[in-house]
Structure to design on (123 residues):
């Protein structure tokens, strides 16, 4: 791996936990689909350098009015197919929202159970 690609890789790894970046989105997609980085690069049909360039981009908000324009810019910059990027971003966004809704439901259920237990104890 040449020095430029190594620097890009290190940058992508550094921001992988920050939800605002494509590095986070790509990692979440890999986890959801249980695929390796190499397999994801094949799905995106891009070079290793372009994969890391993509990872360093700010992730577009799938619900924003300018989503398509931002998606096209990212696709052009990273030389990756916008259709695949669109599919990946929206899949991660949807599953993340579902997981958040499930978590909130669990918290509400736990709070309700705690209140009903407290009510029974005070009777």
């Amino acid at each position: 791996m040449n020095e430029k690609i190594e620097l890009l890789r290190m940058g992508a790894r550094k921001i992988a936990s920050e939800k605002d970046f494509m590095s986070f989105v790509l990692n979440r997609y890999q986890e959801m689909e249980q695929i390796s980085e190499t397999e994801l690069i094949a799905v995106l049909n891009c070079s290793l350098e372009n994969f890391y360039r993509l990872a360093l981009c700010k992730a577009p908000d799938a619900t924003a009015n300018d989503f398509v324009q931002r998606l096209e810019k990212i696709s052009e910059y990273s030389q990756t197919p916008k259709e695949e990027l669109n599919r990946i971003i929206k899949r991660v966004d949807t599953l993340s929202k579902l997981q958040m809704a499930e978590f909130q439901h669990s918290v509400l259920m736990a709070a309700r159970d705690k209140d009903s237990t407290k009510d029974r104890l005070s009777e």
Observations:
- Residues 82-122 form the longest helix (41 residues).
- Helices lie at 3-14, 22-33, 37-44, 48-55, 67-78, 82-122.
